[in-house]
Please model this.
Amino acid sequence: MKKTLAIRHVHFEDCGTLGDVLLERGFEIEYVEAGLNSLSGLDAVTPDLLIGLGGPISVYESDLYPFINDELDLFRRRIAAKKPVIGICLGAQMLAHALGAKVYPGKAKEIGWKPLGLTTEGEKSPVSHLAASNTSMLHWHGDTFDLPEGATLLASTDITKNQIYSYGDFLLAFQCHPELKRANIESWLIGHASEIATSKVTTVNTIRNDTARYGNALETSGRKCFEEWLAGAGL
Model:
């Protein structure tokens, strides 16, 4: 059985539809809970796929969350081996930093639903399934990052230029959340209640209503994106 190792930072931000696709393709998914399980001794090479998931902390807060250094080391070892790896939200920021790019606060918080603008390269990639003509996209972040040297930008928004990027044919990273399952949004609204209330960017009801409107299309498009990329990566 093929194996996926997924680094999870908060329990409700799991693999979502990506997890469904992996299970259908015969993968076993093992979640490692950052901050609870040790990351320093993890095998970076043997798993068929490594995933870094989202969370509300920042890559540059390793003084507060020491496990970040171990997680970055894990991703650096994975990248050096050129083995398939996917990053989502915090995971995408971790991968960018592991590739030598700077991670820092964005010009504004981006929380809620908004379509992506694809680059020419994005239109030719599995990310094409996430085009605005197919789906809107859930965003939930305050940080951003410089595009790593050698990476290819695939999608942007007006607030965040570096939304989706690839690196070689083995790494795909999303600042946004193509993995969201519509039925799970209530856990996000509860888990991120304080951030929603203090950000003044959106409201609980706005996110809930927009998820009802756009969630099914994102599930369909996200699955297609993941399926195509996994096939291209030989998985």
Remarks:
- Strands lie at 2-8, 27-33, 49-52, 85-88, 103-113, 117-118, 138-145, 152-156, 164-167, 171-174.
- The domain at 2-232 is CATH 3.40.50.880 (Rossmann fold).
- The chain has one domain: 2-232.
